[in-house]
Amino acid sequence: MDKSLTPMTLEGDDLIHASQPFSHSIEGPRERSPEAMARIKVKNRRMRYLNTHPEYFSSLELVDPLAYDRLVRRFQTSAEREEEGRRKGYSGVLEADLWRSEAKMEALSNPSKTSLMTYRRGQDGEILAEEKDDVPINKEDGLRKWRKEMELRFLRGDDEDFEYRQ
Predict the structure, then answer these.
(1) Is the dihedral of CA 110, 152, 31, 35 positive or negative?
(2) Number of Cβ within a 10 Å radius of residue 49
(3) pLDDT tens-digit profile of 41-91?
(4) What pTM, to 2 d.p., does this model score?
(5) Which residues of 121-154 are buried (b: 16+ CB within 10 A; e: fewer)?
């Protein structure tokens, strides 16, 4: 993570300095409400956690198996997949495959407008997974997008398996 981002946080999708009590808009600066400042502090605390616990990102494949498959797994070499399979074991590989299949069926039957990944059926019933613009350029681009999506998810407080009130 870029250390220059440490004193900043996200408000919506915009990076802001938490120490700035004003927000700039077309109309000019406006004072932030106490609720907005409290949200900024929470997001800063969460960002600080991610900066000091990079291992958080290493176990998120099953959180969004479709995004992981599309952004990360597709670029793994056979040797990397084999190593990952050994690390997970047979049951871990099977679990990930089942989660991916279930997630794909859920995405088809209940599409979400906020989801990173969308799926639809083609003319012959085949599953169409992505638009050409959604395809990562390379492995680094895919990993960057994956990490950013998981980071935003964490900052919003959307990780149901994480105890935010520790």
Answers:
(1) positive
(2) 15
(3) 999 999 999 999 988 888 778 788 878 888 888 899 999 988 888 988 888
(4) 0.64
(5) eeeeeeeebeeeeeebeeeeebeebbbebbbebb
